[in-house]
Amino acid sequence: MTEATNRARPLTGPVLNRSLRWMKENLFSTPLNTIITLFCIYVIWSLLDVLVSWAVINASFGAAKEACETATGACWAYVHDMWRFLLFGTFPADQHWRPLVAMIMLTSGMLLSMNRRFWSPWLAVAWIAGFVAVYFILAGGIFGLSVVRTAQWGGLTLTLVLAVVGIAFAAPLALMLALGRRSDMPLIKVVCIVIIEVFRGVPLISVLFMASVMFPLFLPEGVSIDVLLRAQIGIIFFQAAYLAEVFRGGMQAIPKGQYEAADSLGLNYWLKTFKIILPQALRLVIPPTMSTFISLFKDTSLVVIIGLFDLLAATRAAVNDPMWRQQFIEAYLFIALIYFCFCFFMSRYSAYLDNDLKKSTSH
Amino acid sequence: MTEQNRLADRESVIQVEKMNKWFGDFHVLTDIQLDVKQGERIVICGPSGSGKSTLIRCLNRLEEHQEGHITVNGIELGDNVKNIEVIRKDVCMVFQHFNLFPHLSVLDNLTLAPMFVLKQPKREAEATAMKFLERVKIAEQANKYPGQLSGGQQQRVAIARSLCMNPKVMLFDEPTSALDPEMIKEVLDVMIELAEEGMTMLCVTHEMGFAKQVADRVIFMDAGQIVEENEPNEFFNNPQNDRTKLFLSQILGH
Fold first, then answer.
1. What strands lie across the sheet with B12-23, from one edge to the other?
2. Counting beta carbons within 10 angstroms of the beta carbon of residue A165, is it exposed (0 to 12), middle (13 to 18) or buried (19 or more)?
3. CA-CA to B44 of 20 to 30 Å: which in A21, A147, A192, B83?
4. What is the mean pLDDT of residues B18-30?
5. A276 contacts B101? CB cut-off 8 A
6. What strand order describes the sheet that includes B169-173?
7. Where does B136-229 have alpha helices with state H?
8. CA–CA separation, A52 and A225 (whole Å)
9. Which of A258, A265, A361 has the CB atom closest to B145's CB atom?
């Protein structure tokens, strides 16, 4: 700031002045740099030109499909026509407010949980209550809501349910697996190692496939477990196995002196683990943990192989509609944008949290 | 000799009998025999690798011994987890590298164990914590985090953290070895004050000035054995064993 004001010219404001100087110093400092900069600007410009003229200038935004026939660019009528299907799948059309409420509850729950002020055991209780509420809002059967089978849940709603429930249950399970794997008790240790290695050793697709096809074979006659629930449990165990190793890595990074200090103050195993080791270990592994959550969010799209209708599956079904065959680019771009928004948001949050926690304990 | 009389009728707090310890094949402690009276100040010295840290770490079970007996306040220290927990409440350790909890503020570092182990109410634990922070002259740092303090300040916080447990015995494992020279004094001053108030202390250190000033007894260890022990005057002026003489000439020679 002082630099900028020192050299400020009368005709330009400080902000403009500073950015001009920044450009001069970083982009045009030598002839070679100038050439590279100009070339890059040209490449970016040509790409943007193609994209913008396709997506905006030559595109048709009308709701009617007919408009698309004259437009040379994107046909957003498709998204206009299909957005309900992409968001809610095959949920009965007159009941669409229910998945909408469920999605709002899930996302606002996530947003609230991101605030460290709300971090307390009550948050876990609130989440469980929230999940029960979301379940009944979607499934119905009480308060006069009509029953909607889980097979009819779909689109972004299903993706969000699978991802949020997956994250909420995979994290505590992973913690138990990680602690179990470090345990001195041989039986617990072996059980945890087997669970972690089995689920990490196979692709998610085969976990889901086993959950949907093989698992019912082991159940007694007449007992059946909902296919969505089975897929959800498969996802939880699969991601928990990965996350357990992330957590374990964090715990191993805590210096031996921390364990010894806790021991010498007479803290027992649980106090030592939950008051000393985990708060430090989890802080260390925020970036890989968030990465696992992000991959969980995207991996939910694999439930399509067992016939569940998540966001990606809904899109695939939509582009198979003979009326809209041409518009698959628009469709995939649209859902790519949805996935990206969620994942990018998670990634920014992880960076923020990491920074915030570091700031609070050092200079 | 008045020093010896001071302790003559005191009870033993720690008794170690024929204790042996191995790290794998390496015989790290051999036939350790030690009796610590209440209020006694013992300084343990010796060349590096002589087993002095391992010895005091055995006294609160940070290390396991394989043979012999250790009794603290009449309670046998062995595999029994309950016994270990009881003993650890009474025997606190100050480490070479402080080992403060970096994610907790200074005050929380001090109140955690009293609140959860001794079940003190928060208000009481905080009052005690502030009292001891005043005593180590660092009360104004109560709300900072360990990473924001100097080494000497951190070590004083670590001492205060142990004091909050109201321990009967304090073990010091080279408490000044990781400090810059100008910070050693501030920590030693706190330790001297503690000694004068009658705390039972076992201190592994190379600070021979400290030993001369406060120790009731100096123990010299070499190769896992207690080679010589005596009251400081005799120990420094009239060492009996050749290895003690060599060691003393090396550390006091320059």
1. B26-37, B12-23, B67-72, B75-76
2. buried
3. B83
4. 90
5. yes
6. B91-94, B169-173, B200-204, B41-45, B217-222, B225-230
7. 151-163, 181-196, 208-214
8. 49
9. A361
**Alpha carbons A247 and A286: distance in angstroms, whole number:** 9
Q: Under an 8 A CB cutoff, do A276 and B93 touch? A: no
Cβ-based neighbours of A276, under 8 Å, separated by 6 or more: A258, A259, A261, A262, A267, B101
Is residue B102 less than 8 Å (CB to CB) from chain A? yes
> Rounded CA gap, B230 and B237, in Å?
11
- The dihedral region occupied by A337, where left means phi > 0, alpha psi between -120 and 50, and beta the remainder, is alpha
φ, ψ of residue A61 to 5 degrees: the values are -105, -5
CB-based contacts of B199, cutoff 8 Å, min separation 6: B39, B41, B170
Q: What is the DSSP letter of A71?
A: -
Point out the residue among A262, A266, A362 whose CB comes nearest to the CB of B89.
A266
pLDDT tens-place string over residues B41-95: 999 998 888 999 999 999 989 998 899 999 998 888 888 888 888 898 889 999 9
Q: How many CB pairs under 8 A join A and B?
A: 67
Which residue in the set B61, B113, B147 is minimally distant from A265, CB to CB?
B113
Per-residue pLDDT of B95-130, as tens digits, reads: 999 999 999 999 999 999 999 999 999 999 999 999
- Concatenated DSSP letters of A74-103: -BTHHHHHHHHHHHHTTS-GGGTHHHHHHH
Q: How far is B251 from chain A (nearest CA, A)?
A: 28
Confidence of residue A2 (pLDDT cuts 50, 70, 90): very low
Question: A280 to chain B nearest CA, in Å?
Answer: 6
ipTM for this prediction: 0.89
Residues of chain B contacting A260 with CB distance shorter than 8 Å: 62, 93, 95, 99
Q: Do B117 and A266 touch (CB under 8 A)?
A: yes
Q: Write out the two tokens for A242.
A: 């990965």
Residue B113 DSSP one-character state: H
Mean per-residue pLDDT, A14-33 = 81
Return mean pLDDT, chain B. 89
